[in-house]
Amino acid sequence: MEQREWMRAIEQTWVVRFPKQHLATFGSTNISYYVVTEPIYVESETAASEGVVRTGKIVAERPAVITPTYAMNLQGFSSDAFEYLREMARRYGPNSPGILYRYRNESEKTDIVSGAPSEIAARISDDLDRRQENLAVVMVGVDELWDVSLLKFIYEFTSSSAVQNVRELDSRGLLDPQPQLGGAPRAAVPQIERLFQEVERGGNPDDLKSELDRWGLFNYYEDRFLSLFRRGRRR
Fold first, then answer.
1. What angle do the packed helices 188-200 and 205-215 form, to 10 degrees?
2. Helix and strand numbers, DSSP H then E, in the chain
3. How much is the pLDDT for 7?
């Protein structure tokens, strides 16, 4: 997709109704979405007497605490993103905490509805308000690029939730650096402990090793990690 195409979707998308709640800090969040677009086959504004309504759910997993060092060991970042992460590590330290959000799109159905897209979106929004659906978003987007429109909302919603999520994590001490673990945040420990337990029950030790390496903590857990294999040989 050329840049001007997705830029057009960004510029022509607006959110009619935002969810009434932020993303949950300590659990997953299910957000119902309604993306209303003008059908791609409409050639003029005067012919826009119907709209396309795509519905589904965005599932946001529990936010995970990460650091610049951790993120540099994840796949899927561009070279520019890695340079940004390196700069953040230099500026704030390799274990300065941030938050990683993971989303899953579960599309449900597509309907053709009478009325202009803005009118349809307003009707849906009013209905959601009457039903007090707090975790639902309504937006008007671009038909052939409707998923880009959805991503615009995800970015904005994530940004608006991040401050509260960080505040709640910090209030529980989950961002506190752990000197015994080289300054990694306390939130790293539960995930590592969970993976140790999974390996003890027969899970894949490679997942545990990868997580330790992402945090740069293998040296701190090396003896315990190797003991898993010594115990396995004794059985």
1. 160
2. 8, 9
3. 81
pLDDT averaged over 10-residue windows placed end to end, the chain, 235 residues? 71 94 94 94 63 95 87 73 79 83 92 93 97 96 89 90 93 92 91 94 93 92 90 54
**Rounded to whole angstroms, how far apart are CA atoms 207 and 194?**
11
SS3 15: strand
Q: Which two tokens stand for residue 3?
A: 């840049």
Q: pTM of this prediction? A: 0.77
Angle in degrees, 0-180, between the axes of helices 146-171 and 3-11, rounded to the nearest 10: 70
Radius of gyration of the chain (CA): 23
User: Which string of DSSP letters, residue by residue, matches 177-232?
Assistant: EEGGGTTEETTHHHHHHHHHHHHHTT--HHHHHHHHHHHT-HHHHHHHHHHHHHHH
Nearest to 185 by CA among 227, 217, 222, 144: 217
Angle made by CA atoms 98, 102, 107, in degrees to the nearest 5: 155
Query: What amino acid is encoded at 7 in this protein?
Result: M
Say how far apart CA 232 and CA 120 lie, in whole Å: 62
The amino acid at 125: S
Give dist(CA 56, CA 103) in Å, integer: 13
Q: Identify whether the C-beta of residue 68 lies closer than 8 Å to the C-beta of residue 94.
A: yes
Beta-carbon count within 10 A of 32 CB: 17
The C-alpha atoms of residue 42 and residue 166 are separated, in whole angstroms, by 45
